[in-house]
Task: structure prediction
Amino acid sequence: MRLKPVYATDPNLVDAPLTQVPIQWAPKQGIHLYHFPLSLDSQKVRQGLEELGVQWQSHPILLSAHQQFSPSYVRINSRCVVPTLVIDGKVTTDTINILDLLANRFGTASNCFDTSEEEKESVKYWINKAAGLFIEAMTYGHIEGVKKPFPLRNGSENGRSHQDKVDLLSGLIDRYKKDPTLRTAYEKKRAVIEATKEAMVAQGQMSAIVDATRVELEDLAHQLASGQFADGGWLASDAFSLADVQWGAVLYRLQWVGLQPLLWEDDSITSAYAEKLFAKASFQTGVVQWSKVGSKVVLPTLRYKLLRALGLKNDV
Ligand SMILES: N[C@@H](CCC(=O)N[C@@H](CS)C(=O)NCC(=O)O)C(=O)O
Result:
């Protein structure tokens, strides 16, 4: 039974993270982030950039219009996911890897994300724990008694949104059969989406995923009560760390999709931690301000689809 995302459990199914790899199609100068306003992993990286005070150029990849499959994007991130970071023509992929790179490159001078040697192991442990939660399944899958917010409501029946992607990718595999780079990327992506969909629709899966998440959140509450947070610090360290970046976006997402009542109490240490995380200026700028569905997602998607219908855009 699959209880974690493919990216956390099956390195053989996905392309390895890239770290500062020069790619000819990437912008040659400056710091660029390819991201989607509502994407969990994009939220984490945007908060990281804000926390570090790094100026960056925004390239929205509209997952709502399947732009993650457009050939021009797949040539820089063959995983067909956001986020992707480009610094002076060099590409870095995978959220944990991107945040590590940013912290090493821009955090040292400002002591940002600075954790002591003893804290490092614990920070890493809590980063991996957050990244191992099956948030994609809980965002798109149907969970008894939970009413999903707009714009998730329609896709949550029987993995329909994932089946749409499988069909789209099958068409792309055929269209690009003579381009080995694109064809391979699409084939691998289709396998990842099929595995994810399978894990969401099989009998009893979604409740098992929610139960497994509840266990992880109980561990979180225990760590908060016994670790640095109880003394005015953060999850795994005295100073705010990349583990807190991971968990801020996760808790915000679980709240947004209506799962909080199944996972933690209002009046609990987890709620107190969430409140402290959400109050950070970097969280407000990197996460909350990008969460306006109408202006950040619906309108850009309509505009993009209109241009495509008029033949002014010929991507996917
Ligand atoms: N953690 C992995 C996976 C990222 C991921 O799953 N991103 C989601 C958004 S949070 C995405 O792009 N989904 C689009 C899709 O799978 O089609 C990474 O950072 O490369």
Remarks:
- Strands lie at 21-22, 31-35, 57-60, 84-87, 90-93.
- The chain has two domains: 17-114+282-316, 115-279.
- Residues 7, 39-41, 63, 68, 79-82, 93-95, 165 surround glutathione (CB under 6 Å).
- The first strand starts at residue 21 and ends at 22.
